[in-house]
Inverse folding.
């Protein structure tokens, strides 16, 4: 084998090493990129969760407070009607108490 | 025609490229798997977070509504309580006013008679307030019931009206004062007053 042949083989081996090294570097870069992508995905889902929870809270609390307000308004209305309706019967109740206390019943 | 060396060089480079392709392929596959795993994990975490939040918010929703229901029940009870109390307050005003009327003497005589009858003993004195003492004295002077001829105590009570019949030993005491009767009526008639006020109501 001539010197030129040996040099050609040596050159080929060096190039082969470079090819493999490039591939390793490329692989590592892909893995790093994947890691960054994974972090971004997790952050994106977490942000989405925070947003959706906030939205859910707003919807559910809104409903709950509307329902609570409705219940209270209803009972305030009932209390008002109660007072109005009791007016006509108040005299009867007072008479009953007065008679009982004075021993007139 | 390739020489042996050229074939060897070609083989070295082909082998290197094959190895490089394998390395890149494995790295890409690993990276893709890692991204997919992270995506699945993040999605699962998202679902858990939302599920927990939904459960907590449901409890909060129920708490808010329950509090409103309790507040509304309390509001209605307070309204009823105020109306019932106003009946007793107004009743007392009318009773006070009635004790100044001429018709009250008859009531006082009956209250005294009842108290003496319940006390039973002959050794009983009657305690009254100052205006009623005068009324009872007038009744006695007009020859009112035998029962009233029993002793009218010189002690005066601070009451709206009515009498207390007390044995001289102090062991028997019958409270037939307006105040005592009113206090007892407040307990006894509360349900009845409530029924009169609210029975036919639409609420």
């Amino acid at each position: 084998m001539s010197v030129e042949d040996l040099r050609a083989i040596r050159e080929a081996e060096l190039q082969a090493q470079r090819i493999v090294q490039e591939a390793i570097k490329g692989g590592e870069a892909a893995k790093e990129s994947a890691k960054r992508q994974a972090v971004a995905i997790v952050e994106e889902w977490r942000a989405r969760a925070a947003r959706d929870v906030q939205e859910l809270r707003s919807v559910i609390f809104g409903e709950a407070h509307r329902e609570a307000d409705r219940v209270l308004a209803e009972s305030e209305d009932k209390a008002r009607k109660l007072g109005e309706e009791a007016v006509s019967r108040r005299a009867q109740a007072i008479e009953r108490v007065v008679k009982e206390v004075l021993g007139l019943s | 025609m390739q020489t042996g060396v050229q074939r060897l060089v070609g083989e070295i480079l082909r082998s290197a490229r094959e190895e490089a392709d394998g390395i890149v392929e494995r790295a890409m596959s690993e990276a893709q798997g890692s991204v997919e795993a992270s995506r699945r994990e993040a999605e699962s975490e998202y679902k858990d977070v939302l599920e927990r939040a939904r459960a907590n918010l449901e409890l909060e929703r129920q708490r808010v509504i329950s509090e409103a229901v309790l507040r509304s029940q309390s509001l209605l009870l307070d309204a009823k309580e105020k109306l019932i109390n106003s009946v007793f307050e107004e009743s007392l005003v009318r009773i006070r006013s009635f004790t100044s009327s001429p018709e009250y003497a008859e009531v006082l005589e009956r209250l005294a008679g009842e108290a003496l009858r319940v006390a039973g003993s002959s050794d009983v004195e009657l305690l009254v307030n100052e205006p009623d003492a005068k009324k009872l004295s007038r009744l006695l002077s007009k020859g009112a019931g035998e029962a009233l001829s029993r002793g009218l105590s010189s002690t005066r009570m601070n009451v709206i009206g009515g009498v207390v019949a007390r044995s001289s030993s102090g062991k028997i005491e019958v409270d037939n004062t307006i105040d005592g009767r009113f206090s007892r009526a407040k307990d006894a008639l509360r349900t009845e007053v409530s029924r009169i006020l609210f029975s036919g109501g639409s609420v």
Observations:
- Chain A has a mean pLDDT of 94.
- Chain A has one domain: 1-105.
